[in-house]
Amino acid sequence: MFAGASGGDVTGSKHLIMVNGKKILLDCGMFQGKRDEADQKNMNFPFDPKEIDAVVLSHAHIDHSGNLPILVKQGFTGPIFCTHATRDLCNYMLLDSAYIQEREIEWLLKKKKYRTGKSELPEPLYTIVDAENTLKLFHSVSYEKSFIVEDGVVASFYDAGHILGSALTHLIIHDKEKDKRTTLCYTGDLGRRGLAILRDPQGIPPTDILLTETTYGNRLHSALQTVEEDLAVIVNQVAERGGKLIIPAFALERSQEVIYYLNLLLKKGKIPSIPIYLDSPLAGNVTEVFRSHPECFDKETYNDFLSGGKSPFDSLELHYTRSVEESKALNEKSGSMVIISASGMCEHGRIVHHLKNNIEDPKNIVLIVGYQAAYTLGRKLVQGDKQVNIFGDPYDVKASIYVMDAFSAHADRSDLLEYIDRIDGLKKIFLIHGEKSQREAFEEALIANNFENIYLPEFQEVVDIDL
Ligand SMILES: [Zn+2]
Description:
alpha/beta, 20% strand, binds zinc ion, single chain, 20 strands
């Protein structure tokens, strides 16, 4: 059953495999979007969580892992299989997500209708205790090592090259009633070749059935080679102006990639030695997880840093700010500097304060390196709005706004086609995790490349896989 990230959705990834009387869930992601609608979908699974025997988790992004605590809260007690790095990342990501849920309820309490008891205060979707209970169920496995998920189902993870620890899940399924064997691969989110730090997406063994993401099924990204040069130009510009470079970045992966490139440019002497601040406690914690998983790094990271006894996440210029006081103190500092902070779409967190304090100064530069959803402050900056509202007050946008879209961690149309073309034995392809236009355009692209038997499942659709 396709229980999320299907029918044109890109969030809430959940795919249920039913075989030999067992139920195995691939991912348990959170639906994101309009709050009430998303909450309803997150709380009401189209199956009974108590009946799920095991979960196989592709990676730590919240739209793939974030609903696990609700699954557990509603009675799931089985194992959650994932890679070692995904387990360590979820440790921070799920606790942070629970913290946000709890804080949102505190924030609602300030509204009159809840304070006066006129309306009933909703419960948080899950609490830190629910997240902690979930983390106890994690079983981590190395890449390329087979493991038994349930009777008749053997799985192996292959590096998806999307974020640290991300995996393609390859399953060998033995339907005992029919005495038939089928192989199935779920891409999770597929990365791109040449991403900083990460290895390229790994090939998989022969596969009958593919469940593939199609986030950018109709898009081609800018070349990655330009990232280093473009970033150097921008840092040099801000240093000449004596201004601040503000980079809103997601705490997981994008922040580490930006740090990697800045450290590389410093090492090569291509940018001046100005202070760089990573001002996000979550990004700091996630960077610690990166440090402890060098086995996931690519050859370039080894050659550029590790072989010389250096770390891609440390330099004399780089400072990790943890406390609120340290973060506030950045406002008082003068001179050129780089500030990397979350949230990635400028909607909450410390980045909003940095934008408030710096957006009206033409010496400064704001660099957008990630996707900005409609109506977010980040999107308004990308659109070129001359005035934006921050904490309810209007601010003139006088800082320069630059956008770099080459950072994307998702395969584009040609990456997806190329990857699928290399898979042996494909008999059927299910297109998931893509908006309507992306999925449909990618279906056409597959047909034009002589692929057959392509299916676009609807939300909650049950498909009988009988080849
Ligand atoms: Zn992802």
